[in-house]
């Protein structure tokens, strides 16, 4: 049955070389195989088959963010028309995941829901945005109207669980926040398509206090905006309403410059985090940040905490007076398996601090400044037989070849190999956010 669905799916999408060949054997008496006919399969089995036909590996999925990814099911749009017995299951599968990129698509979808409101109840995954082409343009003509129509769709999908909001015109802000407040989302991705710079017409769509909309049902949250040389897509006034003291988030990704107070409040509320990815472009007060991160120390397994400060801040950076965040934090993170950090937030004492659970360690240096630099101190720790490095298998270091000359790299590699650790040195120009 699944093979039949896939074959029909390919042909209905223009794959002409899959045409049926004429029979070469006498026809079979189908009265003897009634139970195997696809139109009499139970609804739930048909639904599973249709969903299987459009499933992809999450890594290849087109929509969502870095933590939660999915595809739309629009490729099933002809399935309800092929067989009347398939219609209910195929329609449910089709509307389960919807991508609306552009005002015209939003308005057509709204027209459909006007006549068939039950289809809105079927939607579990949704992506809304003004469209790839419009995201790349500075011209905002018609974008306010398009954005409002896209947000209207949210009010007609009460069972929505997973949502990606790509850049919208800031004129839709009030309607968007009102709609989000009514939904019980499991994952929320507020992020543009990868590689798209933010536009002025999107600036002000969010504000720092909007993080209070992290609903108790939410398990995964991603917020991304801004970038080197581009204006921020999110205006961030001071926090106006307090965040809850507890948020049940399991996955969190922040690639934006929140205020220190907002970041601390959010991290302190996330006590069940297993995956955390934070990227920011400033130095943070280390004691308060370490204290906020300790809230999830018992549960965190994958942590990326990267600071890429401005040149002005780096000029004032003094490692001798800066107590790195992870020098304070690592002793509490007994379940941490993978860690990626910037060189400003860890010192050369790291091998005496890593938890026994840590398997992969990555350290990134920006502009040759940091607390983690080559020294004989590092080599001595690695070669100390009394030092237990637990489960550590790999160490990846991004830094300048000027800071780590070939002799130092080789010394580090030999010391790691002696402990069964793979050491990789990569020039900092190969580093990505």
**Helix/strand order, N-terminal first:** HHEEHHEHHEHHEHEEEHEHEHHEEHEHE
Oligomer: single chain
Strand order of the largest sheet: 3-4-5-6-7-8-9-10-11-12-13-14
Span of the ends, CA to CA: 44 Å
Total DSSP helices: 15
Main pleated sheet: 12 strands, parallel
The tally of domains stands at 2
Number of strands: 14
Radius of gyration over all CA atoms, rounded: 26 Å
Task: Summarize the model shown.
By secondary structure, the chain is an alpha/beta fold. It has helices at residues 2-12, 43-54, 79-82, 87-96, 103-115, 118-122, 132-135, 143-154, 173-180, 260-269, 286-293, 311-316, 325-329, 376-383, 406-418; strands at 63-64, 69-70, 97-101, 125-129, 162-165, 187-190, 220-224, 251-255, 275-280, 302-307, 338-342, 360-364, 394-399, 422-427. Residues 12-31 are annotated as: Disordered.
How would you describe the overall organization of this protein?
This protein folds into two domains: 34-246, no CATH class; 310-433, no CATH class. The chain contains 15 helices and 14 strands. The protein has helices spanning 2-12, 43-54, 79-82, 87-96, 103-115, 118-122, 132-135, 143-154, 173-180, 260-269, 286-293, 311-316, 325-329, 376-383, 406-418, and strands at residues 63-64, 69-70, 97-101, 125-129, 162-165, 187-190, 220-224, 251-255, 275-280, 302-307, 338-342, 360-364, 394-399, 422-427. The strands form two sheets. It has a twelve-stranded parallel sheet with strand order 3-4-5-6-7-8-9-10-11-12-13-14. It has a two-stranded antiparallel sheet with strand order 1-2. Helix 8 runs parallel beside helix 9 (173-180) and helix 14 runs parallel beside helix 15 (406-418). The protein is elongated, with a radius of gyration of 26 Å.
């Amino acid at each position: 049955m699944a093979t039949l669905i896939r074959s029909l799916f390919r042909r209905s999408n223009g794959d002409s070389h899959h045409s049926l060949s004429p029979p070469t054997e006498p026809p079979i008496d189908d009265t003897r195989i009634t139970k195997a006919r696809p139109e009499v399969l139970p609804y739930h089995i048909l639904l599973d088959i249709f969903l299987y036909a459009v499933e992809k590996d999450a890594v290849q999925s087109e929509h969502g963010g870095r933590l939660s990814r999915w595809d739309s099911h629009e490729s099933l749009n002809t399935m309800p028309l092929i067989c009347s017995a398939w219609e209910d299951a195929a329609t449910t599968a089709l509307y389960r995941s919807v991508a609306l990129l552009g005002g015209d698509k939003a308005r057509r979808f709204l027209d459909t829901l006007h006549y068939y409101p039950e289809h809105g109840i079927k939607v579990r995954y949704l992506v809304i945005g003004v469209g790839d082409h419009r995201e790349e343009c500075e011209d905002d003509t018609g974008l306010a109207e398009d954005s409002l129509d896209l947000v209207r769709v949210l009010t007609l999908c009460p069972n929505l669980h997973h949502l990606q909001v790509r850049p919208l015109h800031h004129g839709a802000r009030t309607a968007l926040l009102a709609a989000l407040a009514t939904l019980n989302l499991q994952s929320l991705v507020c992020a543009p398509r990868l590689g798209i710079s933010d536009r002025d017409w999107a600036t002000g769509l969010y504000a720092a206090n909007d993080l209070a909309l992290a609903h108790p049902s939410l398990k995964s949250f991603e917020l991304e905006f801004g970038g080197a040389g581009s204006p921020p897509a999110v205006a961030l006034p001071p926090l106006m309403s307090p965040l809850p003291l507890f948020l049940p988030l399991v996955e969190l990704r922040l690639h934006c410059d929140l205020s220190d107070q907002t970041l601390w409040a959010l991290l302190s509320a996330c006590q069940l985090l297993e995956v955390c990815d934070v990227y920011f472009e400033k130095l943070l007060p280390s004691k308060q940040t370490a204290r906020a991160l300790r809230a999830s120390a018992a549960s965190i397994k994958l942590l990326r905490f990267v600071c890429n400060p401005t040149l002005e801040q780096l000029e004032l950076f003094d490692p001798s007076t800066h107590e790195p965040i992870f020098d304070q934090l690592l002793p509490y993170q007994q379940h941490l398996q993978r860690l990626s950090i910037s060189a400003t937030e860890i010192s050369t004492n790291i091998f005496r601090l890593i938890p026994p659970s840590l398997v992969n360690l990555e350290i990134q240096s920006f502009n040759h400044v940091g607390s983690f630099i080559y020294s004989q101190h590092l080599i001595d720790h690695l070669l100390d037989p009394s030092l237990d490095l637990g489960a550590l298998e790999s160490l990846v270091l991004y830094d300048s070849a000027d800071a780590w000359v070939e002799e130092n790299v080789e010394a580090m590699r030999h010391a790691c190999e002696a402990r069964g650790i793979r050491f990789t040195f990569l020039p900092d120009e190969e580093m990505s956010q």
